[in-house]
Amino acid sequence: MKPPSAPRDRFAPPRAAGAMALAALLACADSPLPERHAPATVRRFAPAPWNTVWRRGGAVEDTLLLMPIAVAADSARAYVLDAAGHRVVAFDAATGAPAWHTAGKGGGPGELASPVAIAAARGGVVVADPGNARLTFLDATGLVTQEVTVADVASSRSLCPLAYGTLLVATGEDRPLALIRADGGVERRLPLPWPELADLPSLARQLRLAPTAGGRACVAALELGHGFAMVADERVVWRRPYVEAFPLPRVQVTRSLRTRTQRLAERQIAAYDVAVAGDEITMAFEGRSRAARRLLDVYSASTGAYLRSHELDFPVNAIALAAGRAFVLSERDGYPTLTAYATTTPTAAVP
Amino acid sequence: MRPPTRAPLHLLATLAVAVGAALLAARARRPAASVAEVLARAAAPAHRDARYHAYFVFQPADCEGHLRTLTLFRRSPVATRIRVAALLLVGTPADLAAVRERYGARPYGAPIHLLSDAASRTLRSLGYARTPFVVVTDGRRDVALTARVPSTPEQFVALGRLLPTLPPTSAAARASQ
Questions:
Q1: CA distance to partner chain B, nearest, from residue A174 (Å)
Q2: Of A73, A87, A265, B65, which one has the greatest count of Cβ atoms within 10 A?
Q3: Per-window interface: B 110-169 vs A, CB < 8 A
């Protein structure tokens, strides 16, 4: 006797037809997003008002900075996150003398497994370490003051310490901004400041964060996108386009019967680091100009209005601003260096 | 009734054996491709110069930090001697698309290609069963250096200091004569 067959889903297509449809639908289709950016604005260049104070690293000190990926600073210290060393290296902000470094690779107290982001916080520094799924707080002398396990750190990319001990973390989640309490709990998840980009793949929604003076707000800059925003009190205060008109990432959509996969067809970086000092936001920009990676665009922190740009004669990998100094990670002859510059306000911008 | 003849079958079988034997003989006479040749084929380098060629072999699961080892090749004393020819991915075309999405088409100035099966076998013969690692070749024939990607600061510093000490490539030596 023929066994009774399972009831067939009447919405399921026949197998042969399904296979044909699958074959037809597996083809990729380009779906360029509409470009929502302001018309190109001409940069207004001003000489970089910087005087070199000290420089560390380079070929002579090739064991000091191995593979630095981020820098943070306060009035006393400059902190470098060294990915190859799995450590934070701290320098005296005034003299550049090495002050301390963390223990190295591991999961023990003060050890880091795969650190990805760093920010000055609580008179010291905080490190996002997805390898250990935790945030590590260090004081100005390098002592661990707190280690909190935070699941969101697993996909963290950038940190913004706020007043009252909270921390805004940019993640790869659907609601990419997580407000973390001092005890490590997630206070709230915030949506992307650009709701129209919510459906993009997480890679296309990567954010760089930087706190404003006093930790009252955070600047959130799209790494692959077209602009930046100010986030305060869990809401978006304003959104602005970059001075260099920059398209949104081109997304390639692959459809099958049951799934719809999005991939970036091209990965073009816009802003790759951001720092705030006083009322100015400084953005390290790659973009498509001939001066890519040597550009610093400056915007007003109050309104987001474009102020001026600086074209440097060396590529900038990361930047931190504190107490009238700019701390810049760059490469000299291919060797990583950290340079401290004394900054002054430029008197004029050259159109 | 006359039984069907088997002559055509015999003829075909004889022909197949003869062709197979000829192919085997030709393969035996052909010199084995060098590691450098196999890698160059896998990467299809756009241009050749008198520098060493470096290949970075990795998998999608390898962490991004390992890829940053390629910053060592940007150092002036290294860059004048060694060119990063390609990043060779062990994986599928879908992996390649995902990696290009994550790192861009030319991370660290070099294209990403899939590692061919032939190249993979050749690299295994060098003793590499795990990624990531680096192979540096001299022109089309010789392997100049192979190294696992540094996992400690000491190894990183050591590799950074070792790379500039490679002697001039054979092509550079010929050119200087």
A1: 18
A2: A73
A3: 150, 152-153, 156-157, 160-161
